[in-house]
Amino acid sequence: MARLLGRLGGASAAHPWRTLLAWLLALVAAVGVAGVAGGDTHDDYSIPGIPYQVGTAYLAEHFPELSGATARVVVHGDRAVPEPLLTELAARLKVMRGVAMVAPPRLSADGDTALVAVNYRIPVTDFSGSEGVDALRAAAEPVAKAGFTVAFGGEVPENFSAPSGSAEAVGVIAALLILVAALGSLVAAGLPILVALMGLGVGTSLITLLAAVTDISSTAPTIASMVGLGVGIDYALFLVSRHVEGLRRGLSPREAAAEATATAGSSVLVAGLTVLVSLFGLNLSTLPVYASFAYATFATVGAVMIASITLVPAMLGLAGRRVLPRRERTGDPVRTAVRTGPTRTERWARWVGARPLRSALAALVVLLALAAPVLGMRTWPQDAGSQPESNTTRVAYDLVATEYGPGANGPIVLAMPAPLAAQVAAALPGQAGVKAVTPPLIQGQAAVLTVEPATGPQDERTTELVKRLRATLPDGVMVTGTVAGFGDISDRLAERLWIVVAFVVALSLLLLTVLFRAPVVALKAAVMNLLSVAAAYGVITVVFQTDAGARLVGLPHGGPISSWVPILMFTVLFGLSMDYEVFLLSRIREDWLATGDARGSVVRGLAATGKVITSAAAIMVAVFVGFALDPDVTVKTTGVGMATAVLIDATVVRMVLVPATMALLGRANWWLPGWLDRLLPKTAHAAAPERVLARL
């Protein structure tokens, strides 16, 4: 593999304009085809077999007007809401696309607030972009012009999140500043940004094309961009830094590009493949929306990975020696004097290597302390109660809770055969947690009624009420509705998390064992990545479940962690954590193959990669922090969690725990039993540089 990549890098560097032209044509073609044949994002939250889905199917058969999406229009003012204004509002709502029924307005006790519920005959996923919200705003325009506050809640408004490019812009600007500081050359700093954006453009076009043939979640492109931008810049940085090392040793630009692609390019390929393998785990969640996250991120990471090993060497060949800092290009003997003493990273590596047990235990204590809060993590799919106070859905949520009680934001729907309706309706009033019950609506042989809990949707007592109703009500009664559905989704995701973890860890172990031919190293890498992810889980639990932490990230109060986050974070982070692991281990393995010095190779490998890993991690953190500014709670939580995990991984894990454990194990790191040696293919991954050049 190293020999093939070296030839590819050398050819790209020798013919840079051809490679650049090929990528420009690929980008133009991808954007053009996506514009003509691409599709729109579409969420699919269906999970066959869960109780909520069974109840929804029953409603679709017997009460089609209650089986689709819902919306709520909340009107509030400093005076009583006029009845003619509400009549006009109801009439305008009824003519919107897909509307099946508009309930009579529910007035608050003092009459200054009205709640109008809208039921659609189509699911919320049938709305494209802001279509549903725009229709609601148009219908309520006369009410707003009359001086009343109008806010929108329910599935239709809550399912729409306005896209924003600010996260990407923040990440790119921060990454450029870090790259300039790390590489000392604006040309060298600009290359990773350019390559990442080129790959991101192709990847985004591929996502649009995928949306034409399968459901791609509306949030998936944002998550894919976050991951693709971070890894794209990091992969290019690994190659550029290795290329600069070659130039400083006297290699020509073409030779340096070939060596960088053969060595660092091999690490990029392994790291990228690990990310792609990890993404397959999302399919085991059994949620179509997660599968779409996998497809979108797979396309983006694949595009930036290919761009890194082809476009980076071409751009390096084109740039020549301009990737070096100006003081080195001018040849000033004073300004370019070579440092003869050890670097700070090398001194640190020696210090850790001399105290491996103490260092490993200290790092382990820190990781376990950070991970401890995860024991108190509670998950719940995001709803309006988690949104910033400026969001219209949050305004509606707070108004409803204040005027009608918290339970009015999460009614529970009971569907059943008609003969059971009277018995159920008589048994519910007075039960713990039940505030109100509507009279049964009977249609043919089926009946439906609504229970209003005394507590809000995110309250654990509401979830307990749903479970109690399912356990105590007669057979044939189906408990459904948004709150019940959220509870079922949370339970399913909690069940599938461990299956996803086992799958991703097993595949990653297999991949690393094959490529490094070192089962001990592969097992150790998996354990350390699990520790990094657990620590990140602990941090987001503290940040998002406490009021003080939530206010730090722009949320009004703490609440449960979005149910979508744990599995998504694990699959993405487990792959991303391998980036630094592979880059560091590859360099250590190179030295080990060349010298046979197990302990010394750890010191020299860490000294050679420490600055690059730190810079790459800083870039990744900057990109993820940019996405933490996104108003969507799922994206915000994922951004904070991934930034935290990368920071922990590049400091506590890579700079302390990895070198300490490798120093403790010594030659045992590279132990390979004979029977496994015969089974594993002979790979050339991360061979010593001089051997690579000799084969090119």
From TrEMBL:
Alphabetized UniProt keyword annotations? Cell membrane, Membrane, Transmembrane, Transmembrane helix
Entries under Pfam families matching the protein: MMPL
- Gene3D superfamilies, per the entry: Multidrug efflux transporter AcrB transmembrane domain (1.20.1640.10)
Which ranges does the record mark as transmembrane? Answer: 169-187, 194-213, 219-240, 260-281, 293-319, 360-380, 497-518, 525-544, 564-585, 606-629, 641-665
Localisation: Cell membrane
Alphabetical list of PROSITE patterns matching this protein:
SSD
Domain spans labelled SSD: 193-318
Q: What is its main location?
A: membrane
GO cellular component annotations of the record: plasma membrane
> What is this entry's stated membrane topology?
Multi-pass membrane protein
**Where does the signal peptide begin and end?**
none
Q: Which PANTHER family match?
A: MEMBRANE PROTEIN MJ1562-RELATED, MEMBRANE PROTEIN YDFJ
Q: What is this protein called?
A: Membrane protein
Highest classification ranks of the organism: Bacteria, Bacillati, Actinomycetota, Actinomycetes, Streptosporangiales
